[in-house]
Amino acid sequence: MLNLLKRLFKKDQLILLAAGTCVTLIMIAFFLHQPKFLHLLNLKIYDHYLRQYHQPAATDVPVIIDLDEKSLAELGQWPWPRYRVAMLLKFLTAYGAVGVASDIIYGEPDRTSPTIMQRDVKRELGIDMGFKNLPEDLLDYDKLLAFNLKDGPFILGFDFIRRLDEHSGLAAREDCYVRPAKVAVLSPPGAPSPQDVLPQAEGMICPIAPLAKAAPESGFITITPDLDSVYRRVPLLYTCNGEIYASLALATLMQASGQKSIILKMSTLGIESIKFNGIVIPTDARGQMLINYRGGSRTFEYISASDVLNRKLEPGRLAGKIAFIGTSSSGLKDIRATPLDPGFPGVEAHATIVDNILSEQLLSVPDWAPGMEFLGMLAGGLVTTFLLMWARASWIILPLIGMGYAMWHGSVLLYEEQRYFLSPMYSYITLALTFTTLTIIKFWREEAAKRFIHGAFAHYLAPSVISQIMDNPDALSLEGQEKDITIQFSDVRSFTSLSEKLSPTQVTNLLHDYLTPMTRIITEHEGTLDKFIGDAVMAFWNAPLDIENHQEKALRAALAQQDKLIELNEEFLTKYGFTIAVGIGIHSGPVRVGNMGSADLFDYTLIGDNVNLASRLEGLTKYYGQKLVVSRNIVDACGDGFVFRILDRVRVKGKEEPVTIYTAYTPEEAEERKEELTTYNQAHEAYVAQDFAKALELFSKVAELGNEQVLCDMYIERCEHLMENPPDCHWDCVFTHKTK
Each residue of 28-40: pLDDT tens digit? Predict the structure, then answer.
């Protein structure tokens, strides 16, 4: 298998294939185990769908009878006396409600009932308290409420205790009389029993026995949030002590419609759906239904309980309606966080469930969704891997964006048209992670290849030239370009005679010790090393990359080289017994720069008359006794950053056009030699003015200072010659050099 892959793919492609496969396998492991952070991210994607594509309520059947702030202000704080609750129920049926469900658990006797008050006062204060003219029906408010419950479509709420805690004060009550649901189970062979898959409870918080026995129906209000404390789904059925119970919303629908039973359809994975009154309700394997929230709080109609008790509604106002009694008051702590509203009244969740079922607009994650998500994830990883194996990362961005859009759009269409939630999360993460990982590997491999090539040719080409070739291989041709370039030539004076005193090994070591710091200074000042010519060095600035102020940088490099030579000479004197002198010539002008040579072998270098002139300037350093000679072009380009001293106006060998040559100093050095430079300039001005006697006198004074003996001796000799042989009237001060 490995040999086959090696025949089919190159080494780099095999590395990408292996990496892409590993990333995909890691994502498969995440998909199978569903880590918490990815589960939470998936929930947020579901929330986005719900926020983006939710629709308004499809029915007006459910209404909220709200124990709001207004009701509490008008009728007193909660809990209210049960006679008032009985009145509320009676009035709701009188207004036409076909179902009235209470999202409130009446778990304790009403301590405001006269009989209970009479008993408590007798026990605690020893006083016999009597009630005159009070009808017998009002002596016990719980009996009154129970009597009213018998005659109407009322559903009482209760709650489950998932795990009993001896320290919580909660215990399973033996006198719970809430009614289990009538459930018909359709179960194929091999399917689990409902009690094995439904949410299970160990106990209940029930209405007191008289109320529970009297109520026609009861339903649990238990709902558990997801990991992020947001309520997205609700169990429609619960099991406790071997019995199955219906939720408050489902029990209310059963009571309002006259349906006495529901059908529970099982599969080998668990619960498949719940069928009620011909409506199929899709659920997850545990019988939980996704709540298709229609909006934030008060999406459904809210009616203040005080308005009902004060008979402010028009007759028939609630005809055909299902009323849920609950509260929007934050003080009664029935506020839940939903994907659409962090402060959603819990009672409205029951109304939303009723709306979802009656309108049959039910959200679900179908059984085939995990398989489709798995295939999408696999496609995202493998397609991205194969694309990156055969193409550059930049070329496949559009195809990947297209694939990502297709995944998202397909998921959205399923949600909008079929109300199926098919998450693209794992496909997206796999696609993005594979693309990122493989792009990094490709980048790393390309950089490694560049480093290899760079290292292989670093001894033959200047680093900047190699970098240009690596960045733009198409530039590797014989064609060049004309540019304004600053050229530097440097040469060790009398190196041939010096090398005669050394062995070949010592000569090699000397050149290494000298050339290494010199070339380093050139590159540090953004110069390009062209070539070594024995002990001579050729370098240039402003190619292959454009360098700002390249004349100034070349001049600074030359001065730094001279300073470095002072340090080196101390070592050379100790190591070899002598010091060396170096002459540097710098000129700037248009040349042709590029890869020059044959079709098989070539060199990145310069060609042009200005290159020759720079070489001639280096040769003149010995004649004028200078370390550095620069042209007028360098003087004009560098401005006031340096101090220049004119040396001569010359016609170099091979050129007819005369040039003015200079040497350069830093401002600090010029200040130290101020007297010398001032006298020299006066001497040169007298020389140009043909006042050779004065020039002779001044050059002699400069020579006495001992810094410019060679230069001054040359001018003294010239002045003496010109005094004996005065030039003609057309003298241009130009001295023609016959040698290089």
Answer: 999 999 899 999 9
* CA separation for the pair 649, 732 (Å, rounded): 9
Structure tokens at 194: 């409902």
Q: 512: buried, middle or exposed (CB in 10 Å: 19+, 13-18, 0-12)?
A: exposed
Position 137, amino acid: D
Quick check: 166 pLDDT over 50? no
Does residue 670 have a pLDDT over 60? yes
From 16, 2, 11, select the one nearest 442 (Cα to Cα).
16
Cβ-based neighbours of 567, under 8 Å, separated by 6 or more: none
Q: Rounded to two decimals, what is the model's pTM?
A: 0.63
d(CA 524, CA 530): 15
Retrieve residue 23's tokens: 């990333």
Maximum CA pair distance of the chain?
156
Residues ≥6 apart with Cβ < 8 Å to 366: 282, 420, 422
Three-state secondary-structure class, residue 313: coil
Write down the residue that tokens 């059963």 correspond to: 254
Backbone angles phi, psi at 204, to 5 degrees: -135, 155
Cα(607)–Cα(621) distance, rounded to whole angstroms?
22
Per-residue model confidence as pLDDT tens digits over 649-660: 998 877 788 999
- Please say whether the beta carbons of 595 and 602 come within 8 A: yes
- For Cα atoms 604, 608, 614, give the angle at the middle one, nearest 5 degrees: 95
The DSSP bridge partners found for residue 370 are none
Q: Name the phi and psi angles at 276, rounded to 5.
A: -135, 125
Residue 184 phi, psi (nearest 5) = -100, 125
Give the count of alpha carbons within 13 A of 42, CB side only: 21
Indicate the helix (H) or strand (E) that contains 589.
Answer: strand 582-597
Q: What does the alpha-carbon distance between residue 740 and residue 736 come to, in Å, rounded to a whole number?
A: 11
pLDDT at 170: 44
Alpha-carbon gap, residue 280 to 185, rounded angstroms: 14
Instruction: Name the H helices within 504-583.
Output: 504-524, 550-576
pLDDT grade for 167, boundaries at 50, 70 and 90: very low
Strand partners, 201: 240
Over the stretch 437-454, which tens digit does the pLDDT of each residue have? 888 887 787 766 666 656
Residue carrying the six token digits 């009861």: 218
Residue of higher predicted confidence among 88 and 530: 88
User: Whole-number mean pLDDT of the chain?
Assistant: 87
Measured distance CA(189)–CA(210) in Å, rounded = 42
- CA–CA distance, 531 with 540 (Å, rounded to integer): 10
Burial class (CB in 10 A: 0-12, 13-18, 19+), 258: exposed
